Amino acid sequence: MAGVARELPNGVRMGHGDGQVNGGGHDDGHREFVETWRDTAYGCFSSGHKFCRNVCPVMQVTRNENHSPTAFHANVVAMERGHLTVADVAEDYVHCTQCGACELRCPNTLMAGDFYRARTRTVDVVKAMRAFAVSQGVEQPNWSRWVEATVDAKNEPVLDVPVSQANVRDWAEDLGIPTGGSTLLFVDCEAAFYRTSLPRSVAQVLRTGGVEFGLMAEQWCCGGPALEMGYPEAARTLAEHNVADWRGCGAERIITLDPHDYISFTEDYPRWFGDDYDFEIVHVTELVAELVRDGKLTFTVPIERVATYHDPCRLNKRKGIHASPREILRAIPGLEFRDVDHVTQWSYCSGAGGGLMVEKPEITAAISAQRLEHAARLDVDLLVSACVWSERPLTTAGLEQDPQIEVRDLMELVAESLGLHTAGVRREAAQQ
Amino acid sequence: MSAPPISDALYDELVGILGAENVLVDKPARYNRTRVPAPFPVHRWDDHVPDVVVLPTTTDEVVEVVKLANRNRTPIVPRAAGTGLADGAVPLRHGILLDVKRMNRIRDIDMTDRTVTVQPGVNMLKLNEVLQPYGVFYPDNPASYPCSMVGGRIGTSGWSLIGARYGHTKDLVISLEVVLPTGKVIRVGGGAGGKVRKSSTALTLKELFFGHQGTLGIATEAVLELVPRPEAEFAAFFSYSDYDTAYRSCGALSKSGLATLAGVVLFDEWKLDYLRRDDEAYIEQPSDVRCVNAVALYGTDAEVVPAARRVMEIGHDTGGRYLGDEVSQGDWAARHDRYAIPLHGRLRSSGQVVPMSWHCEDAALNYSVLPQVREEWHAIADRYIEGYGIFDDWGMFAYTNGSHAPWGDYLVEIDIGIWEQKLDDENWAAWTRCKTEIAAVALKHGGSITACHGATRAGEVDLVPSELGGAFDVMKDIKRLLDPNNVMNPGKYLFDQAYE
Fold it and tell me: Which of A212, B142, B367, B467 is 20 to 30 A (C-alpha) from B404?
């Protein structure tokens, strides 16, 4: 893959005279792109109210209007009119976690969403612009390397640990989980290689609740990150393998433990595979809440902690899943749960999503630090998340709080309160 | 037109003041700091692109940038949230765009003297999130509450939905620090510009810096009022089958003398038609609901409970039908979100939905002239809709306007949609003529062009001298005195005349 075809603007000083119409010189890709996205973009550009800005996690820390959801739409209009090119704007579109807060807060969604069945499509615009940039040879260096490594290893190159197909199931070594079956547990790359305490907890919680499940014969990355970074072909290749594996295993139901996978399997895969794609996709939080509700899981070990819950963006803002994790937390004995409602949490984020952590880790860190400041105001000693990608930067930020705030996954807590000894690794915490 | 790009020397000096990370020259940075939500001449986008964007974090940095601009005679345009509905933050002469979003520190929360001191890039919703544990709030509450910022509220002299109870921006900002166009820093407010609300020492200068639209300086810090969070809120919606009854009822409600009255809003028949047309925020009502008054009260339980009974009596006695708790509580809360949005645009010829930008005319008018202005304004809108096929009439609101004195005058708003994708020189010229005609009606009836947004928009700005008369000459003298080189937001408010 090519390197970055964009120079930073240091020393490049252009007056307004450079805004001459140059649209005529573009290839068909440019025309097709702006014609596809122009009307969506005008829905925002002609509004310009910018309600999105104060819920946007990136804008909250960079305070740079280039990174606002409004700019992501306005740029399309400017490209249509020949003022800007994809090379001008590509780097700005890195500044998005694809959390979806802007879409919810948009007056277009709020005030006309039901009537027109419309939701502002900023996440789609960002994904499309990133893919268009890559197609034009404008790549971001870390994303390029990340996707290349993912394609090579079939799993993401999560940091600090060896990643390969040879050890994708190491986390389950002593658990005796079968391969195949009608229900499969899909284990995200970050969980399989980095935070193995999570899949170990999930597996044992499900087993305790009487859920029979197996693992894939050969689990590859879901493809979601590659798609989010602008590499749809690579993502599609990974997805095709996974779906073929599911079919080969005789799977009917896929349990995900990561909200990012949940998005891939409920939004991207159906779009790619059409009517043939008839798998039931379940997020583990929904399933476990149901098991607790049905009395199939009973918490016995009190957890004497003061905790708040971090709504993962892809569960809360993208999929509307916010009740089941709270239901579980309220059922855990000994836990003092100090909740912040899910609408307030539209403006919360870990900053890990949408590839931001790979390309701009310093912005991710700032967003996570801000999230932990919200938690600290509640005088809690524990922040519970349900998104493994959020947990690494949130954990780092929690360790920087005084007093420190621990970050745990909801399923780790569930396992603990069920009296399960799950083992596995939570690496950042172990480093302290 | 084409002005020269900024020189290496100017760029280097800006970087020396702010650091390279706070000096942006890339095209997206400059193209995305041009428009505000008001209709924008998108066909002339290039005319409004700044040459460079700076993002200061301190007053000292603002001072140095302003001094540099003044020395070099470089235009400088302040921009806070860029959510205004006039064009204050839209550059007319390129130059330096000074974006205050990184000046977002809350410096001091003083619960003893009940003030909060902030930088201009602070948003009110975010501020009130921080203030909530203290049991107080900052009650500057425009429709743009989730996005606008204190600096812009000062520059435009903003209007608050609950201003009848708590006052508007100029009442709620106790004092402020201003960097003048020469780089001199002053504090204005009571006395020395600290935390004193009322002073009689010498001239009152504070209000000079409310509504100047960035032409007289840049607010870099403000001391704001803190108000006890209300124990009780009450909202009621009354419906009427004709405008005249609704108008009289609106007058009776606003003249009730209830100190907790936060506002009365009169919706006319065009507004009801528009809401019925496609806005699901308006819960479906019978066809004989032709006009609506919304009333809100804020205060202590001891005040609001009996006042609410009085409001219900007045509403009923003047011909109103209470629309029920669901509408009253739900819809008042939703007012902050009931923005006119592009998807509400319809073409009269075909009924087709097209994305339209929102013009919100906002004249200040006395109660006595509301019915007549309403007829004249809708007639103007109708002519332009028929003539050009790119406009839409989204109806009118009349909001009580005076701070703590809601009975005499109103912020009168006609909302007009404009299909920006179709703008060219001819259509833009038609639009500015339309605005001139609308503003002229307000002046003819003894009103003011604008109650809250500012009269800087193309079309209506031409009428400012006739609204102000001899005071406009004094305004020009003040501008020349404070900004001898015409560098602060040049081209606005016809201030070029001050230098002729």
Answer: B467
pLDDT of residue A357: 97
Residue B220 Cα, gap to closest chain A Cα (Å): 16
Q: Which of A13, A65, A111 sits opposite B32 (nearest CB)?
A: A65
Q: Which CATH class for the A295-431 domain?
A: alpha beta
Contact (Cβ atoms closer than 8 angstroms) between residue A156 and residue A225: yes
User: How far apart are the C-alpha atoms of A305 and A375, rounded to whole Å?
Assistant: 14
Domain architecture of chain B: domains with CATH: 8-101 (3.30.43.10), 106-228 (3.30.465.10), 232-334 (3.30.70.3450), 342-464 (3.30.70.2740)
- The residues in A 179-238 lying below 8 A from B, measured between CB atoms, are none
Q: Quick check: ipTM above 0.90?
A: yes
Mutating which of B25, B26, B35 best tests the A interface, going by the most A Cβ atoms within 10 A? B26
Nearest Cβ partner of B36 from A48, A81, A84?
A48
Chain A partners of B56 at a C-beta cutoff of 8 Å?
Answer: none
Least confident piece of the model among A375-389, B332-346, B422-436: B332-346
pLDDT tens track for A272-311: 999 999 999 999 999 999 999 999 999 999 999 999 999 9
* CB nearest to B28's CB, from A20, A47, A71: A71
Cα A390 to Cα B34: distance, rounded to the nearest angstrom: 35
Nearest residue of A to residue B281 by CA position? A111
Please state the separation of Cα B271 from the chain's center in Å: 20
- Reference B220, options B167, B166, B176, B190; nearest CA is B176
Rounded to the nearest angstrom, the minimum Cα separation between A108 and chain B is: 6
- pLDDT single digits (tens) B25-48: 999 999 999 999 999 999 999 999
Where in chain A do CATH 3.40.50.1860 domains reside?
A: 153-289, 295-431
Token pair listed for B191: 């006395």
Q: Which two tokens stand for residue B446?
A: 């003894």
Fold designation for A153-289: Rossmann fold (3.40.50)
